[in-house]
Design brief:
This protein is mostly helical. It is built from nine helices and no strands. Bound molecules: ligand LTTT4AJV. This is Ceramide-1-phosphate transfer protein.
Length: about 220
């Protein structure tokens, strides 16, 4: 059951709780909760329809790579992002200039989700401050263009842009979050954002310190 992502209904509160468990007292990021947070987000995306399945397939693939590393024989090195980076770099397990011997290293895989977390942060901030008639497709593509798009080739950017047009409107979006009234959703987004920003910024610092932000 731990390796599947589609059976439970999405709840924003649950995802928020999971991301808040990511940070240790000394600000290390637990991969177990990071991966679990992403599983929750994928459940949300899956509930929006099959037009998003090329996106969720890629996210699931990356989630499973990290889950397998965490549950594998070297799992103790994959407890936090900090310990993973140290272990993989010290052991020469990261392709630094081109995808070669370690095409599925934890560092390069998590970097893809990390970039997507920035998209999420930007998108949720737009949602939080949006008005009733704001378009989710516009908010989503603005957030995408400011983040992930810079790392995607032409075909993925076009396919993503087309998929965004199929996003449901703001009221349906808020409903699927399973929080309550729109005011309650906005309040919960206000709680969620600092947590997501913290996780993002700490990860960004680790990757910056080790010059890993451009891993192939
Ligand atoms: C709180 C509730 C509201 C928001 C809920 C959002 C739910 C989002 C769930 C998942 C987001 C998708 C994460 C996508 C990860 C993409 C990682 C990536 O960049 N992969 C590319 C590079 O990988 P490698 O080739 O180097 O291994 C890969 O090429 C991408 C393939 C698929 C396309 C990715 C498009 C990303 C669009 C992100 C916006 C998602 C919009 C969903 C709207 C709900």
């Amino acid at each position: 059951m731990a390796n599947t992502v589609e059976e439970k209904k999405f709840s924003l509160k649950e995802v928020l709780d999971t991301f808040s468990l990511c940070l240790s007292e000394n600000k290390e990021v637990y991969i177990e909760h990071y991966v679990e947070g992403w599983r929750g987000l994928v459940r949300f995306m899956n509930s929006l329809g099959s037009v998003f399945s090329f996106i969720s397939k890629d996210a699931v693939n990356k989630i499973e790579i990290l889950a397998n590393l965490l549950n594998g024989e070297n799992g103790t090195h994959y407890i936090t992002i900090q310990s993973m980076v140290k272990y993989e770099l010290d052991s020469g397990l990261v392709d630094l200039t081109q995808r070669d011997k370690h095409p599925e290293s934890g560092c390069r895989t998590l970097l893809r989700l990390h970039r997507a977390l920035r998209w999420l942060e930007l998108f949720l901030e737009r949602l939080r401050t949006s008005s009733e008639d704001s378009k989710t497709s516009v908010m989503c593509s603005e957030a995408y263009n400011e983040s992930l798009a810079q790392h995607h080739g032409w075909i993925i950017r076009k396919a993503s842009g087309m998929a965004f047009c199929y996003l449901p409107g703001r009221p349906t979006f808020f409903e699927v979050m399973n929080v309550g009234t729109p005011e309650e959703v906005v309040a919960m987004l206000g709680e969620a954002l600092p947590i997501i920003s913290d996780v993002y910024n700490i990860t960004e610092n680790v990757y910056t310190q080790h010059e890993l932000l451009q891993l192939p």
